[in-house]
Amino acid sequence: MSTAASGGGTAKGGGAASGSVWLRPPRQARAEPPLSRDRIVTAAVALLDDEGMDRLTMRRLAERLGAGATTLYWHVETKDDVVDLAFDAIFGEAPLTGHPHGKGDAGWRDDVVALLTGCRAMLLRHPWSGALPLRRRPSMGPNFLGWLECLQSTLVRAGFRGQSVQAACWVLYNHVQCSTASQSSLHWPEEDRLAARERLRAEADRYPTLVAGDYVLDDGWEENFRLGLCYVLDGLEARLAAEAS
After folding, report:
1. How far apart are CA 61 and CA 72, in angstroms?
2. Number of neighbours of residue 196 by Cβ within 10 angstroms
3. For residue 233, which of 48, 109, 68, 74 has the smallest C-alpha distance?
4. Are residues 110 and 98 in contact, defined by beta-carbon separation less than 8 angstroms?
5. Contacts 24+ apart (CB under 8 A), 19-28
6. Suppose 91 and one of 43, 63, 125, 144 were both cysteines; which one would form an S-S bond, judging by CB atoms 3.0 to 4.6 Å apart?
């Protein structure tokens, strides 16, 4: 079903919602019942953390809040609004480290590592966020924009200019987002993993590199993230050096 009550994208009262929730002014709160956007967002994050994206509907959220669906729709028009607000709320937990607007390029790599490592820890605390790369529009919330501003201004401080800032930013963000999405979504029983390893070993002539690396048993998420980030930063640093020469 795609009705608003079942968590779809249609606003209560008929018409479609007007763009991003961040581009519409919030409605004035009613005196009764005592429901605010902050309460809605807190409850939505808790629901998503407990039950995942597939279980989030406007009806279930209203039940968790102890409110009627009509009251909920006064504050948010669609499920997409709720997800946008929840996503921005969790980005409020991501630490903004370093001195992105400082002068000189000293320490920019350390600042990027700190930013992405903090972001990764935050995303892993909220596994449902792994589904968000498939969403239809970019986030315009203040917490996400503040984090992104910190990352991009750090890249500018390092010496990136123009389109290079965007390209470097998104390769870094995609690294942290995709690595956490994979870690959060992979739920493979141990017996299946062992069976898959035996199948690969039986076809070692065809997949010698995968067998040598014990591909299906690799769960070094932290090490792979850090090493991969090092590779990306090495490449970005080499690019800066080549452009400066």
Report:
1. 8
2. 14
3. 109
4. yes
5. 20/84, 20/137, 20/140, 21/76, 21/77, 21/80, 21/81, 21/84, 21/85, 22/84, 22/88, 22/139, 22/140, 22/141, 23/140, 24/77, 26/75, 27/74, 27/75
6. 144
Q: Are 69 and 83 in contact (CB under 8 A)?
A: no
Which of 153, 146, 154 minimizes the C-alpha distance to 111? 154
pLDDT string in tens for the chain (245-residue length)? 333 333 444 444 444 455 777 787 776 655 445 688 999 999 999 999 999 999 999 999 999 999 888 888 888 989 999 999 999 999 999 988 755 455 555 589 999 999 999 999 999 999 998 767 556 667 889 999 999 999 999 999 999 999 999 999 999 999 999 889 888 888 788 888 889 889 989 999 999 999 998 888 888 899 999 999 999 999 999 999 998 87
Write down the pTM of the prediction. 0.79
Q: Rounded distance, CA 74 to CA 35, Å?
A: 10
- Which residues lie below 8 Å from residue 239, measured CB to CB, with a gap of 6+? 164
